[in-house]
Specification:
Length: 204
């Protein structure tokens, strides 16, 4: 299997030389790293070329690496039933650079790309209906970004008096607690749980 995938990777690098940056084959999985602007040509080739025939788009998802110049990865997973193979396609982008939509090649990408937009804020150019899909229409920010606060910016609740859903700024009922992450069952030398001193007093 690995040899077959490596051969496919070399074939794709040759046929799509201007659009492919690298191929990686790890754990019997082939990953194609491509240029952002080449995504439509690459996806079309993978779908239509007789040696590929990746006719099924399994998923489109995102990942956030805040320390990189282009912090976001957009990842496409494709399946070829004809050749019984899978391939992963990756590209990188930032907050300001749009990624061409692959909806013309795979209409099923519509909701996948909307999810990536909603959760990461990656903009897909020429998408037919790019709007939020998992969060509310008035949601502030993109919750899968690493710099998004765990508490969010606003909280939503149903108000019985107003008979409607209202949004309010997040209020934390208590300060963040500090944990030492030691197991109370194993503990460590010199580590005492609050109240342990009472047991020692009784033993004496």
């Amino acid at each position: 299997m690995k040899e077959t995938l490596e051969e496919l990777g070399q074939y794709l690098k040759y046929e799509l030389s201007s659009g492919v940056l690298d191929t990686v084959c790890v754990l019997d999985e082939l990953t194609l790293i491509i240029r952002r602007e080449s995504v439509n040509r690459v996806i079309s080739f993978l779908r239509d070329d007789p040696n590929c025939l990746f006719k099924t788009l399994i998923d489109v998802c995102g990942a956030d690496y805040p320390n990189r110049p282009e912090r976001f990865e957009v990842v496409y997973h494709l399946l070829s039933l004809k050749h019984n193979q899978r391939i992963r396609v990756k590209l990188t982008t930032d907050e300001a650079s749009p990624v061409p939509s692959v909806v013309p090649q795979f209409p099923s990408a519509n909701w996948f790309e909307r999810e990536v937009w909603d959760l990461y804020g990656v903009y897909f150019a020429n998408h037919p209906d790019l709007r939020r899909i998992l969060t509310d229409y008035g949601f502030d920010g993109h919750p899968q970004r690493k710099d998004f606060p765990l508490t969010g910016y606003v909280e939503m609740r149903y108000d019985e008096e107003q008979k409607r859903v209202i949004y309010e700024p997040v209020k934390l009922p208590q300060a963040f607690r500090r944990f030492d992450f030691l197991s109370p069952w194993e503990g460590s030398e010199g580590y005492e749980l609050p109240g342990d001193e009472k047991a020692k007093g009784n033993a004496a």
